[in-house]
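Run folding on both entries below.
>entry_1
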Amino acid sequence: MIKNPTFPTVAAHKTNQQAGHQLDTKPRILIVDDDEGIVAVLRDGFEADGWTVCVAPDGAQALVMMSFEKFDAVMSDLHMPKMNGLELLYKIKTKENNRSAKFCLLSGCLNQEDLKKATSLGVAHVVVKPFAIKSVTRKVREVCVLNEPKAKVSYDTSLIRSIINAAEEVCNFYLGESVQFGKPYIKTDSSGSGCLTAVISLARREALGSVAFSCDGLFFRHLATKLFGENIAGVKSEMIRDMGGEICNQITGKIKINLSRNSYHIQIGLPQVIMGKGHSIEHLVDSPILRIPMTCKGCELAIEFAMSGNLREAEENHEGDDSPSMGHDVMMFDS
């Protein structure tokens, strides 16, 4: 952790603002943190997402900056010298100039008392360190940009059904019980679920997509019993990875078969396996992520899908193909 960073002075910032920054039409965010490394990651992430970013090393300087400039959002560390994040929020709420700014709290350790205070003061979002910058910028834009309309996101149900049928068939075989599906929704962060996730790439010409299959520890207990007749406690971590990789290879193969049956001629990559609690999923495209939760025999599972471009070719007449058609309805979501 890098401390005592070099920040622009209030006077220098005010000079820049008077030179024309007040004409900027981008959403504006003030990042308040004394850790130069964290500031650099946040600055780069928000600037890449289209924000104008200003920085203050502590709450006292942030208040001075906010006395002559308005912001759409303020992201502050909880623990800082001179003034902590909650004290800063309280003072912001008492001043007219930035009272409407949405406040986000950044912390590596947030206890119940701090969380209660943050809620009572109207914190819009809490970011827990360590974090994935893309999920932070997406969530802050969602909750902090004033009255920004949500875009509609559409998915071809035939494509989605081809994918989830593959996971369903493999899970049914190994768990011996039907999979139950929850309500699909658009995911706003990059966190994984359970203890393993596999990411599978899909590509066709300029189009690119990725599928993620996640499972929890109970899934491996059932799987170990079925394969080895022993409890998960007797299975080494290397074997768990191997089992997970084999399951994901089978799901990948089933996806390839299902997509081919439904006129999708797509290149499918080998699954990339991620393990560990609290892991993050990095999809291949920066686009809305459709998540379909699943349960089977008490296991918590999930399928995720993200896509950029059109993965379907023009409709073709497949004479003699008696495979069932799934149709090409569209499912719509708010992003």
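>entry_2
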Amino acid sequence: MKTRHSFKILGSLIVLVISCLAACKKLNIVTTTAKSQNIYSYLTSNPDQFSEFVKMLDKTGYRDFLKAYGTYTCFAPDNNAVLSYLKETGKASIDAFTDDELKNIVKLHLIQDTVKTVSFTDGKLSQVTMLGQYLITGVSNANGVSTYTINRQSLVTQPNIYLSNGYIHVIDHVLKPATKTVAQLIEANPNFSIFTQALKETGYYDSLNIVNNPDTTRRFLTVIAETNKALQDSGINSYAALKAKYSKTGDPRRADDSLHLYVAYHIIFDAKYIADIVSAQSQTTLAPLNVLLTKLDDQTILINDLDFNGVHEKGIVIERASSDVTATNGVAHTALAHFTIKNRLPVRVDWDVADQPELRKLTSIFRKLTAVPNSPGGYGPFPLGFFKDITWQPGASQGISYGCTGPTNTSWYQWWGDVMIMPMSTTATNARA
């Protein structure tokens, strides 16, 4: 009896709870605030790991927005990483850096968006850092373990720490900001002395030396520079020899000068890393109407490797080890051989519209004289989808048809005497081509 009484009480309570829930539907408030900490509070709550990086945030004032609402990604160097960086730069402490130096360091570690490791590919992240420079990601394999890399400078030791205002990826080295423009990077390398002089004489050195270019189409630029050896292998041992070979007007700054165009052909729009280059078949250059054809052959990146008019033209290798060098306004790559614009003469190309693979399989029809009246158009109309790469929207009694009148027919002048008839109107049945 006691047990039965308890069940009655329990049942009454359940009914009461359900009734209360039903009556409280209008108070079912949905909140978007995450229960976890924000980025700054997470860092400060783990001083054994991040106290040095927190000092950077405090001194620069960037702690304020990292503890507020927003969407951010923070590549947080741990204490060992910061201490190693202090030793490397000869600084006794964080206070030894100027405010501007610290701001540049911190801004390189922050992205104003949420970026998880699923977006880490062999190339640049799609979002720029707060410093305005791209980060490149990759994978390092050691002792059978794969680890994400950032800027080839650090490993990600703890990825995807989700917080209320973004993500933290813990890294084992402080990321170093690029300090040189593309022009300065190339000039600083003695192996590019001839190419550097060409940049200066054509005026492109100045274009490649602008940070935050007001022309947004040229905010970032990519240069594929030729080494002195690459030029020497082609018989060009000095800038004077390069100018003598290409400068037809004598003034390399003229847009129509061949040397000017030669340099422009080595400059690509946007910041294009190796992964970006190989992901497309061509790259638009600053040389008007001229593109670089790009190709990945196993692990080798090739420029302008193609078959033209029955002849194979061997491509130019981009050296991986010395490429993907980030600048403040773009990227620099190294070409291991000399290349320039190739002026192609027009080549006649003939094709037969009626020579379709689906028709070739119809051996009783293909190029056989039709016996149907009012030929051509003796076979068809073919159903929509019959031709793999041809689509149309047929109206009533419309469709693609095929016929063969023979090469001697004087009404229809086809090469093989066959023709495809395609409706060119959605209303008129006789509007054909």
